[in-house]
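Supplementary Text 2. Reproducibility record for the structural model of the 138-residue chain.

All settings were left at their defaults, and a single model was retained for analysis rather than an ensemble. We include the record here because the model underlies the residue-level annotations in Supplementary Table 4.
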Amino acid sequence: MKYIIILLTSLLFLSCTGTGYKNYSDIAPQINNLKKTKIFLYRDMGLAGSVLLLRLNLNGLNIGELSEGQMMVAKGKIGRNEIYGDMDGLLGRNVAYKKFEIKEEENKYFIINLTNEIPEKVEFIETKKNDWIKAASD
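Retained model, structure tokens:
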């Protein structure tokens, strides 16, 4: 019985691991890279939805999953872009999206926040490079 509990607990924690980076230092070299049209995403840490994975889709393509405190970089395109966040919450499925434009030689920075409302909501908050770095490196 003890082994079953350990196995189930391990599976629970493993199932909550996203595909993003946990440490800012892993992603920092890409911030100053000369290539542009990158989209930097950071999932803020908080109580709401902390054990739930957020599935991300950019312009119709699955780009990965983030758990709290994780970050990733995706390749955007010049012009109109759409990002979707999809999460199965405690009270049902939550899908949020953000439409935005990227100009040539531009990067975009988003902090993904989960509200404390019931049901929880996903928000994409566009921010400036320095504010994103501060949030992701704390």
